[in-house]
């Protein structure tokens, strides 16, 4: 019998996508469960109040509560590091690991790990975000050595409203950025409904389509010592992203 593993995800309070889609991705694995802790996030912009949502104190408090349930890994299941910068997420991870005594990651660090695992150098980007959020993402990814061949955004300050966009609209955005022939396409937002459509779009376009919920789960599994290849039907990353 496989060792029981518990994945802990810190989730924005207004997010309604990450919990059901994470459970769906892991539904075939009886020995892997996913558990959630929330802290308040209701707006995604560059305003002072919106940026203040991502101070470490509430995230660390939520992480410590998850640690009471003896998680094998704890991840920040949000993409704020993509506009705040990699160093921000690396420091958050350091503090979670110091307080909780388990490996940690974030959705942004998981995406960089996915890019590395798949040998990605160029990417397309699909988000619901405002331009004032998207532009720092593009700059930060460029500083990491990744070239954007095309991006789409919906100019929404969200966060709750991100979940209200339909899969067909998101799929059309993915198809549009695929015209730039990137090595991969990132659907960047854990409250954006791309998880179920990403595998089919990969087959249609012949390009890896990396959804934020899926690649966060993938990285959590790796850090927790579970082989992500046990997950089938949820995209190329689980198949080709290494044990």
What is the helix tally? 11
Integer-rounded radius of gyration: 16 Å
Shape estimate = globular
Strand content: 15-25%
Instruction: For the largest sheet, list the strands in their spatial order.
Output: 2-1-3-4
| Main beta-sheet annotation | 4 strands, parallel
Structural class: alpha/beta
Q: Separation of termini?
A: 19 Å
Oligomer: single chain
Query: Low-confidence parts, pLDDT < 50 over ≥5 residues?
Result: none
The counted number of beta strands is 8
Helix content: 40-55%
H-E string: EHEHHEHHEHEHEHEHEHH
Mean of pLDDT? 97
Features:
11 helices; 8 strands; 4-stranded parallel β-sheet; alpha/beta
What's this, in brief?
This protein is α/β, with parallel strands linked by helices. The protein is 44% helix and 17% strand. The protein has helices at residues 18-25, 48-52, 56-67, 81-84, 86-100, 107-118, 131-143, 167-178, 198-205, 212-224, 236-240, and strands spanning 5-12, 32-39, 73-76, 104-106, 122-126, 147-152, 184-187, 209-211.
Written overview of the protein:
The protein has helices spanning 18-25, 48-52, 56-67, 81-84, 86-100, 107-118, 131-143, 167-178, 198-205, 212-224, 236-240; strands spanning 5-12, 32-39, 73-76, 104-106, 122-126, 147-152, 184-187, 209-211. Strand 5 (122-126), helix 7 (131-143) and strand 6 (147-152) form a beta-alpha-beta unit. With 243 residues, it is an alpha/beta fold.
Annotate the secondary structure layout.
Elements: E1 5-12, H1 18-25, E2 32-39, H2 48-52, H3 56-67, E3 73-76, H4 81-84, H5 86-100, E4 104-106, H6 107-118, E5 122-126, H7 131-143, E6 147-152, H8 167-178, E7 184-187, H9 198-205, E8 209-211, H10 212-224, H11 236-240
Parallel strand pairs: 1-2, 1-3, 3-4, 5-6, 5-7, 7-8
